[in-house]
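Standup notes
- DV: blocked on the single-chain target, sequence here:
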Amino acid sequence: MVSRVDVTPAAADLIRSLRGAHGPLMFHQSGGCCDGSAPMCYPEGEFRTGSSDVLLEEIVIDGVAEPVTFWMSSSQFALWRHTHLTVDVVPGRGSGFSLEAPEGVRFLIRSRLLTDDELAALGD
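- DV (later): unblocked, structure below
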């Protein structure tokens, strides 16, 4: 199955921990400057999405009861639609609004271009 978004094992571990502390989770990547270019993790529904956002993936993570949604602003998606995203976690302080910030780590995106076969499977 082709996906637009995956997570590394380290990111999955952190997501399981954050899920235990905060309940269902979501990611949003706005594409703005500074922290806007990083995936922000919130309790599901805390960041209000609307017609200017695209739901890229409902990420299934072992040990998490519900999928973790990954949203991106539509303007950012227009630029990144040919890209596969992998959510990773690294040491360092991220945004103050993202749930992982107090843990001394931050989520980041690693990316690669989708293949022609993947794009076709995704309907692009």
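- Follow-up: The radius of gyration is 14 Å.
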